[in-house]
Amino acid sequence: MRRASHRAAGFAHRWRRWRAWRRARPFAAGLLMITGGTVLVAVSWGDLGLLRMTGTAGAATWGIGGLLVVAGLTTWADRARRHFTGTLALVLALTSLVAANLGGLLLGFLLAATGGCLALAWVPGDPDEA
Questions:
Q1: Which of 14, 19, 73, 92 is buried most, with the most CB atoms less than 10 Å from its CB?
Q2: Which tens digits make up the pLDDT trace of 51-67?
Q3: DSSP code at position 25
Q4: How far is CA 114 from CA 12, 52, 106, in A?
């Protein structure tokens, strides 16, 4: 019985740490940027023969998707750069409409644009955290 309560206490402690980490940064914004970049690449390079892109368009899709993933990870890692990464995500989302299958069939565009807007709108709860 004691061992089970010790495991439960350890899980509760890790859960509290995770929640504190997640709430101290624009987590949803980064998650949407990462998901948007992944969707852009997945739609254009998936096994949908109709949408397969090669050459310059395929490289642009990989570049935009990769930059969106990096922007999302940077948003998580460095809260102070959220304005830069949010703006970058919005610009990349708009670029993806032209360069990457209409922004990953609009799904990647919408995810990336929403993530960029959330990053720009996020405000730390405690002034000491910023």
A1: 92
A2: 566 677 778 888 999 99
A3: T
A4: 32, 26, 12
Tokens of 52: 């397969």
* Placement of tokens 């730390």 in the chain: 124
Count CB neighbours of 116 within 10 A: 29
> Does the model's pTM come out above 0.70?
yes
CA angle 78/62/91 to nearest 5° reads: 55
Instruction: List, in order, residues 6 or more apart from 39 with CB less than 8 Å away.
Output: 104, 107, 108, 111
| Cβ atoms < 10 Å from Cβ of 62 | 17
